[in-house]
User: Fold these one by one.
Assistant:
Number 1:
Amino acid sequence: MAEFFHMGGYAFYVWMSFGISALVLLVNFLQPLLKHRQALREAEDYYSEV
Amino acid sequence: MNIIAKWYYRLGAPNWFYPLAGKMIPWVAAIFVALLIPGLYMGLVTAPADYQQGESFRIMYVHVPAAWLSMFVYAAMAIAAVVALVWRVRMAEIMIISSAPIGASFAFIALITGSLWGKPMWGAWWVWDARLTSELILFFIYLGIFALYNAIEDKQTAGKAMSILTLVGVINLPIIHYSVVWWNTLHQAATVSKFDTPSIHIDMLIPLLLMAAAFQFLYLLLLLMKMRANLLEQDLASGWVKKIVFERQKNLKK
């Protein structure tokens, strides 16, 4: 297991690559979730005033 | 009206697209996860280390799919741009503006992971080689498309301007692809996407193809989510959003 995380001495480069990619894609996943929720709330406010 | 024309017309209507995309999202997400898990496991654990690059070659399993997708997303946007300009389909414009940040993210990942691989292998984080430079330009074109649409208040004008800019940027795609052939680049030439048989071992190739397929479905997933959010935000005062809001409130009261 330690050998797996060591990545033959390239641990920093390999795990940084996978880590940064995961982070960027996670932001892409969360952004529309939050935007959708906010848009829905705004629509509800809009129609409750009408 | 024939079936294709009818389907095409309906796809252009947000009141039809919005619930359909909502139904598709969980399935697309499930396929993405089903491809990602074996792809990651095989890529990180079972694929044999490269005889020259050692374990560092595993970076390829995010780098290559991200780079492929950064170009695929752009090609899809260019097709949508033609549809938007010729047939004035607003949904195609929503597709472009929703794709741009995803494409930019894939290009960013390709550049960063390439840099993280280049440091131990080439001894440099960055070189101004044709492949790297043209990919960096692709990243900036994505940002430009996104910024242009958001800078113009009137969304009809914004959509048209963005579609034209998207078509102009298509010139960069063949430059990226053939850069390793046309110029003497430090970046290695293609091993999979060429007309010969791929010069890569099958145990290394399978996880790569799994990851590439996973990234395709991830693009579709993120695209559907972003299109839904953008449509809802833009169409706040239109009839179909009103219907959705009232149906939601009815369901909440139950």
Number 2:
Amino acid sequence: MTVKASTVVRPRRSGGRMSSPAHRWIWRAVAVFVLVWMAAHFITLGALKWGPSVRHDATVLGQMIAVAAFPLLFLLAFGTRNPLRGGIIAGAVGVVALLAVLLHS
Amino acid sequence: MQDTLRTRMGWLHAWVGFAAGLLLFCVFTSGCLAVFDTELTRWLQPEAPPQTAAFSPRSLDHVLPAVHDLLAQGEKPFVTLPSARDPYLRLEHHDGHEFLTVPYNPQTGERLNVRATAGGTFFYDLHYTMRSGVYGETVVAFAGLALLLTIGSGIIIHLKGLVSDLMLLRPFAARLRAWLDVHVVAAVVFLPFILLMAYSGTFIRARTLFPPVSYLASLENAFRVSAPSAAHRPEKPAVPIPEAFPPLAPLVAEAERTIGAGQTGYILFQPQTILVSRTDSSGPLLTREHVDFSPVDGHVLRHVLLPGAITHTEQVLKGLHYARWTGVGMRWLYFLSGAMGAVMFASGSIIFLMKRRRQSGERIMFRIAEGLAIGSVVGLPMGALAFFWANRLLPISLPDRPLAEGHVFLAVWVLSVVSGMAWSLLGRPLQGWKIQLFCLGGLGFFLTPLDLATRPGVAFFHVPTVFAATDLVALFLAFVSFQMARRL
């Protein structure tokens, strides 16, 4: 696997110990998974409120969006260089989806 | 390892791909076979002659006593009308795993004396539940999400070389390079199909992953202690089954006036209703439009067709995934694409193990992973072939014969996993691969002689397409297995 020199990022030090990227990625993947899963769940729930009036159609629409959004959001959040930024993106989508569940009349 | 987008995606692709890939290999392989479920049922019931007389609607009434018996047992029987794929009238019901089917002569309505079998729908059930009910369904749906992630990360990794990799296959290059070429070619060429199947399959089972109820409410319901009810609610009286059903031919004719001539496919029987439903082969939209009749006097109760753009989108996704509307050519294309999907998972898993063998080959987890890979990649096809062997070799009079066929399949599969694990833990995984590949080759190679020896009334000059195609695919699998075992 070839990597351009300009894209090399120095590993961060935490408490004097250097952790391997793979270890950090595991925790990052877990955190992103939880956030994205909650966002997908709130999208499904919210579709019943903001979606079509027929319950079957609303459920189907919510699940269509959730299944498509899950991998896209996961890759987006996991792909950002800064883990915090990825978390903020996934978290923001989740919060918007939650607000749509709570606030939609 | 440096922290770049490509390395992050590579890590995600490798680990999520391997963790879900072995299961997805089984899902794609069984899906390939499920595309031909009707045809395989004909192979598995060789007593039924390959050609039969034309359909007469009057024959439907001869099935009614058996329908009545099944309803009395609490089943939901339905009759499948003859079609281009299957010339027989079939009475079917779901036994909790697969649709058990009894063929009838489409002209006289006489029951054909054939062996009881789990049939081709065995692979359909295996495809989406792994024969584990709703838990299996959830795991398979979860693997579908993992597949979407793996495809996405794979595209990001190979984005630059997506077109050039398309034409690059070096089977005689270094082993890792050759496997990588196989993986990339299988994945890139069939990417649209794999992506469509991953999305539509996950969406179809999305209710297990993303139910339209809050998880909190579900948890509360799970832990809520049911209060003792002071007044015992009387049980709902069972719906009586009518003594006699009305003649079915006028009902089918009436339904065809609404649905369209020649568009009826199924007749579902319930104690209160007879549903005459549109055939799945009528088009890519799996509408399941139906006209309902009273089981007492046969008058029309209602016509049900779900309208709306979202429902139509759902029906298209289901229609494209199930492929019941397609002709033979398109079904073979589905089979080929599904097989290439399975090749993609198998080669990906092998690459994952090859890359880590030098560094982690002595670790117990690595050996377990390799044992599981042997058990999945070779074990599942071996189990599937054992299912066909069991169908022909188990005594016809064996009670619960369909279940016994399933048990043979599972026994061979488990044996393969245990054996693969044992060879791997003993530090001789190549031996495990070789032995199992030779066993797989043997099972495939000798399926044709077994078919010829055990098929009643075998003749070379009638229309044995279903039998010939099944035997030839098994022969091809045997050839590939022998070749792989030889080159290992």
